[in-house]
Amino acid sequence: MHSLPEWTDLRFFLELARAGTLSGASRRLVVEHTTVARRIDRLEIQLGTTLFDRSREGYELTEMGQALLPHAEAMESAALAATEQLSGNEVAVHGVVRLGVPELFAVRVVAPLLVGLLQSNPELSVDLLVLPRFANLANREADLGVMLDPPTTGRYMITKLATFRMYLYASPAYLARHAPIRAHGDLAQHDFVDYVQDRLASRELSYLDELGFTPRRRLCCTGMPAQIEAASLGMGLIMAPPYAVPDDGRLVPVLDQFFAERSFWLAAPTDLYRLQRVRAVWNMLREYSDGQPELFLHKGDNALTKKRAAV
Q: What is the pTM assigned to this prediction?
């Protein structure tokens, strides 16, 4: 009969499963990579099975490793909950929360918002993962994340954070140099700035497909910050949500009646959602998004949305 593994060995197992490499796990655990390897070897000997396939590319869970994973995650969840409860954190929000957010939404909305939360909770810390993609919650890259495609498998808490609209914008200099845009049909003769189509983090980012014609993409970027800068310098038209557009006149709306609608979702693994510190960040995002519709819709659309909701 095998002896029971130590919880600390299971922590090493979880971090290696999430990171995929000894160096990645060692950084997350703040130990030498040789320590990670030694702990995994010891765990495999104790359990009498191989948990990882080793290769030059890294470590990948075997079938037995996959079977162990949910049990180790349940133990981690229980340990986190016990630590929070026993440390008296029903009153003070305490600890570190890793929040994954798309890069422009993080910079323009979330980072300034976190300042107030952290000032109100001096024992709370936030690692804001500003990403050109969406956080991988399955490997615990983040404790919670804002995304276009919520998880469809696994145990998660999921809520719609906001519905937003992508509108057309252009710089005044671009509009002055090109043919006027009075109707949708005029758009076909104009240049566009867009995402690199074979590097989309989500198919939900293919906004320009809704134009009804193949746009003339003059510059494509993997992230929206670069797109905004290029469009501001007159490279072409861009589709963006209101929160992404600088309030300095460098971009102005074009054809307000045309837009593409999408939704941001907020998601967290169920076990992590139970933690008070994760819920503090979750509730902050929900409350702020609910109270700031102008971040996601133009003013006229806000009024129309409210009128429809009242009917």
A: 0.71
253 CB-near residues (< 8 Å, 6+ apart): 167, 168, 169, 298
Tokens 């804002």 locate to 146
Is pLDDT above 90 for 134? no
- Tell whether the model's pLDDT for residue 196 goes beyond 90: yes
Using an 8 Å Cβ cutoff, are 148 and 202 in contact? Answer: yes
Distance (Å, rounded) from C-alpha 282 to C-alpha 286?
Answer: 6
Give the span between the Cα atoms of 46 and 5, in whole angstroms: 7
The phi, psi pair for 147, rounded to 5°, reads: -155, 165
* Cβ(193)–Cβ(227) below 8 Å: yes
Q: What torsion do the CA atoms of 125, 130, 133, 139 make, to the nearest 10 degrees? A: -30
Residue 159 carries which side chain, given as an amino acid letter? T
Q: What structural domains does the chain harbor?
A: 7-86 (1.10.10.10), 95-311 (3.40.190.290)
> In the chain, what's the furthest Cα-to-Cα distance?
80
Residue 276 — left, alpha, or beta (φ > 0 → left; ψ -120 to 50 → alpha)? alpha
Span between the terminal Cα atoms of the chain, in Å: 67
Residue 74 has pLDDT above 90, yes or no: no
Q: Residue 88: pLDDT above 60?
A: no
**Is the sign of the CA dihedral 280, 284, 285, 286 positive or negative?**
positive
With beta carbons less than 8 A apart as the criterion, state whether 38 and 25 touch: no
Percent of the chain at pLDDT exceeding 90: 54
**Structure confidence at residue 138 (pLDDT):** 83
Sign of CA dihedral 33, 34, 39, 40: positive
Q: pLDDT digits over 226-276, tens only?
A: 999 999 999 999 999 999 999 899 999 999 889 999 999 999 998 888 888
- Residue 294 confidence (pLDDT): 84
Please classify residue 170 by burial: count the beta carbons closer than 10 Å to its beta carbon, then call 0-12 exposed, 13-18 middle and 19+ buried. Answer: buried
